Amino acid sequence: MNELAIELNEVLKTSLCYSLLSEEGKRLYFPKGIVAQAAEAGEKAKKYNATAGLATKAGQPFHFSDIMDMYKDGVFKPSDIFSYAPGGGDKKLRKLWKEEMIRKNPTLKGKKFGEPLVFGGLTHAISVAATLFVPAGSTVVCPDLFWDNYDLIFSDLRGAELKFFKFFNDEGHLNVEGMKKALLECPGDARIILNFPNNPTGYSPSVKEKDAIVKALKEVAKVKKVFVIIDDAYFGLFFEEETNKESLFADLVDLDENIFVAKGDAATKEYMVWGFRIGFLTFGGKGLSDDVYDALSKKALGAIRCTVSNCDRPGQSMLVKALEEGKNTKRDMDDLFGEMKERYLALKEALKKHEDEYDLLKPYPFNSGYFMAFSTLGRSAEGLRSYLLDKYQAGTVNIFDKTLRVAFCSVEKDKIRDLVDVIYKAAGELWN
Ligand SMILES: Cc1ncc(COP(=O)(O)O)c(C=O)c1O
After folding, report:
1. What is the value of pTM for the model shown?
2. How many A from CA of 119 to the centre of ligand 1?
3. Quick one: which atom of ligand 1 is closest to the CA of 198?
4. Which of 178, 309, 318, 330 lies at a C-alpha separation of 20 to 30 Å from 205?
């Protein structure tokens, strides 16, 4: 059990509450992970705040100007804002999302898969996928560089075990062999969560690496059933030519009768509405019938019904209106992409200057998304994070004391070079 949960349980043992706790209740705690560190940086990181997975410019979140313009009288009927949204989400939004999914993933054209359902953000969608398909005591394969909330969802909430494989092999490529081995070693059915662009490294597979992943999953499916959760939180922010630009879902959805896939999407991130809490979950698998898809939807609806009952209405209405009628949506999306790509290129350039210091702090390969991350090569990432914050007012994120994550989505381009210099300076002061 996590130490933080143990500490909380010790406090609760002084009351009747402890003996009333469920097993999940005993395991749960609030991690000192990304959210807590971002809150601390909010107070102290006066110069650079590279903590949160939220894209900002001039201190404000990127956004659709069309949505900002909707905040005035007369744009909506009260029923578009104040009534409950339909179970599973606004029908128009679901239809638009499916169309967008096919537009962005041409490989999906003509393939059969389920209807996207709306959730209260992607976290909720992943948590529901886990509730439905990750039993207590089962094993979920996960790269060793992963979003820390998976630990809370799969291990602490669901009571499953995360089984890690090294994300990169010694040549700095995706460790597809390691992934396959971990899947084959799972007792019984295999389960896996894959997230590209990856949080925390900002890495997405090349087309060649994607093909290798697909081939490996097909091979595993020869000997066991495989459940794949695809976390597409940062979909679309691909900055290099050779990167695979489609979701893995598009290849897996009709790959093998023994493979079942749940694709999680984040309107929160992709469409810059972080606070609206809109995510999607879509199921797919070769040969699944309409009746099966219908039953899957109803299971997911049941999970929504008994958790949040229903998802946010105003956000869905606004997103539909922006996607259907917005005059500037393309411009605003292009603006986000252009800005992220410029920051990405500035970061690559800034890192080059420190190549001879990579034995101090080694950048993991990155080519997409909001983040890059350093391996602290066995030294304390928490030590470096707190030193950077206290001495240089620079906010970064420590992950499991061995990785330092930099969210360039929230650092202006003209500050990126300085931030990288400061990170290496601090590491030198601490460790040289
Ligand atoms: C990899 C990954 N998946 C899922 C999420 C959840 O996104 P949402 O804000 O929609 O819950 C995040 C958010 O930080 C993330 O980094």
Report:
1. 0.96
2. 12
3. 1
4. 330
